[in-house]
């Protein structure tokens, strides 16, 4: 089934090249079906890149989706044009009266900042509070997962001595959990972050459960018992070259970043990395949409 996106969204042409069924608003208007309404709060600096990453995964679902894009109005983006934001994005004030089947909160490269020092923390807190009564289930990614755990449960992050970057092997803590349906017992996921969430802090909350972790990368997926809050510390949405772009950017900036682990063939940055986590990523998002959104949401929002 298709995902419904704004007519002129740049990501649409890229997704069509990959044979992902994308339906624009004009065609969707003629369809007699109630699509799931999914809102993406995009906190990443390169918003158009993240749009493509997430829409690629959402478009792999058999469900028909209507996508909305949200940004924080209290922060001025330096990497995305004001015209793009004005044309395709809304703020919380624009959608506050609406209800949504699902919400995705992305990461942001600000792990070292205390939450209260983030310029849009107050607005993000408002959005997360609003989501508790206006969204069926929320999927938090990377820094978004850290921020969600801090806001909803008071669980703080810990700054790492060195950035965690690479592709790491993960295992299942509870293979019978619906979110993990169809997963292999071991699978790989990209991580790119400078802070961590400790497993022991999650275990102190009876309302939370750990679903997947990695010996090298730590806690990966946790969730509330009711499935309304899903926290994913990695970047399953990344494409094959995202980590390379980040590594090259930080190298050019003189930051001397570590070479992403298990990413380049033979750990050689001169070689072309391969995408090895597509199946897991598609399954994660499809399971979230099916079991935690579609099967839980009312027909009339």
From TrEMBL:
GO MF annotation, one: homoserine O-acetyltransferase activity
Protein location: Cytoplasm
Amino acids binding substrate: 163, 192, 249
Pathway: Amino-acid biosynthesis; L-methionine biosynthesis via de novo pathway; O-acetyl-L-homoserine from L-homoserine: step 1/1
UniProt entry keywords in alphabetical sequence: Acyltransferase, Amino-acid biosynthesis, Cytoplasm, Methionine biosynthesis, Transferase
Gene: metA
Catalytic activity: L-homoserine + acetyl-CoA = O-acetyl-L-homoserine + CoA
Site (Important for acyl-CoA specificity): 111
InterPro entries: Class_I_gatase-like, HST_MetA, MetA_family
Active-site residues, as the UniProt record annotates them: 142, 235, 237
GO biological process, any: L-methionine biosynthetic process from homoserine via O-succinyl-L-homoserine and cystathionine
Top-level enzyme category: transferase
Pfam families: HTS (PF04204)
Family statement: Belongs to the MetA family.
Function: Transfers an acetyl group from acetyl-CoA to L-homoserine, forming acetyl-L-homoserine.
Important for substrate specificity, annotated site positions: 192
HAMAP family per UniProt: MetA_acyltransf (MF_00295)
Its EC number(s): 2.3.1.31
Cellular compartments per GO CC: cytoplasm
Name of the protein: Homoserine O-acetyltransferase
């Amino acid at each position: 089934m298709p995902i419904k996106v704004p007519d002129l969204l740049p990501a649409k042409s890229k997704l069509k090249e990959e044979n992902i069924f994308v339906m624009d608003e004009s065609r969707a208007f003629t369809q007699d079906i109630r699509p799931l309404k999914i809102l993406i709060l995009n906190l990443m600096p390169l918003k158009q890149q993240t749009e493509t990453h997430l829409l690629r995964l959402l478009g792999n679902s058999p469900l028909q989706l209507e996508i909305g894009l949200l940004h924080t109005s209290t922060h001025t983006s330096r990497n995305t044009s004001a015209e793009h934001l004005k044309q395709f994005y809304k703020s919380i004030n624009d959608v506050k009266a609406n209800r949504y089947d699902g919400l995705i909160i992305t990461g942001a490269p600000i792990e070292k900042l205390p939450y209260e020092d983030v310029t849009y923390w107050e607005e993000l807190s408002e959005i997360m509070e609003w989501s508790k009564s206006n969204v069926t289930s929320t999927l938090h990614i990377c820094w978004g997962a850290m921020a969600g755990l801090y806001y909803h449960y008071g669980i703080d992050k810990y700054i790492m001595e060195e950035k965690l970057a690479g592709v790491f092997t993960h295992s299942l803590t509870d293979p019978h959990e619906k979110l993990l349906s169809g997963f292999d017992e071991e699978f790989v996921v990209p991580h790119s972050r400078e802070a961590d969430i400790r497993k022991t802090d999650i275990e102190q909350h009876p309302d939370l459960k750990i679903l997947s972790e990695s010996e090298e990368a730590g806690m990966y997926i946790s969730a509330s018992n009711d499935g309304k809050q899903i926290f994913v510390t990695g970047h399953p949405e990344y494409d094959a070259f995202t980590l390379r772009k980040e590594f090259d950017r930080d190298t050019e900036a003189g930051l001397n970043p570590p070479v992403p682990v298990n990413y380049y063939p033979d750990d050689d940055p001169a070689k072309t990395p391969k995408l090895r986590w597509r199946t897991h990523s598609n399954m994660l998002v499809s399971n979230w949409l099916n079991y935690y959104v579609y099967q839980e949401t009312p027909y009339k929002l």
